[in-house]
Design a protein that fits this description.
mainly alpha; Arc Repressor Mutant, subunit A; three-stranded antiparallel sheet
């Protein structure tokens, strides 16, 4: 887990993106914080977390996929905070 990953998971949780109905689009995620990285980098990190089970896809918004933090992602976030 790197700093970008921690910030992404924290952002999803703080924004209430915790279920398929409340997911956020990539554009919403990238524009909500100044990560100092390209949108494509955020996308790659989301895909990595999706494969790890920390993030999952929600309902589509138009043509865009949405993403939300899973219970496993919340547990990972808490583990990182307690280190």
């Amino acid at each position: 887990m790197n700093r970008l990953g921690f910030i992404l998971l924290s952002l999803l949780r703080a924004s209430g993106a915790t279920s398929r109905l409340s997911g956020m689009t990539l554009r919403e995620i990238a524009s909500s914080e100044d990560f100092g990285v390209e949108e494509n980098t955020v996308f790659k990190k989301l895909k990595e977390f999706e494969q790890s089970g920390y993030v999952s896809r929600g309902l589509k918004e138009g043509r865009a996929h949405t993403y939300f933090i899973t219970p496993e992602g919340c547990e990972c976030l808490e583990r990182e905070r307690s280190k």
